[in-house]
Write a structure and sequence with these properties.
The protein is of the alpha+beta class and 117 residues long. The protein has one domain: Creatinase/methionine aminopeptidase superfamily (Creatine Amidinohydrolase, Alpha-Beta Complex), CATH 3.90.230.10. Helices cover 29% and strands 17% of the residues. It is flat. The mean pLDDT is 82.
Length: 117
């Protein structure tokens, strides 16, 4: 989710590789994060905090759960890790027959300020 630049990749950089394919009419997303050559201690700490939030989110999401309630708990983890102020992107978005990357932008947006979802 960073802007495209002409900067060359350097050792220690964090790479986010994304593939958005369509299979049998359904969009899917595959994203992998990698460290080029090595991972410094500060980046590893942030990575581990993100994994902690991801795993907590998997435990919290269930039918009937409100996005706002899930986001509050996940935000608390980021707060405890000293990282909440850096969170600029939501916790998820839908894929399926609609994709916000390929037009037909009517896909469901999951936001923590929507109490009914």
């Amino acid at each position: 989710h960073n802007p495209v630049t002409t900067r060359q990749v350097q050792k220690g950089d964090i790479l986010s590789l994304n593939c958005f394919s369509m299979i049998a009419g359904y969009y899917t997303a595959l994203e992998r994060t990698q460290f080029f050559d090595h991972c410094d201690d500060a980046s590893l700490r942030i990575w581990e905090a993100n994994v902690k939030v991801h795993e907590a989110g998997l435990k919290l999401i269930r039918p009937g759960a409100r996005c706002s309630d899930i986001a509050k708990e996940l935000n608390e983890i980021f707060y405890e890790e000293g990282l909440l102020q850096y969170r600029t992107f939501g916790y998820g978005h839908s894929f399926g027959v609609l994709s916000h990357y390929y037009g037909r932008e009517a896909g469901l947006e999951l936001r923590e300020d929507i109490d009914t979802v």
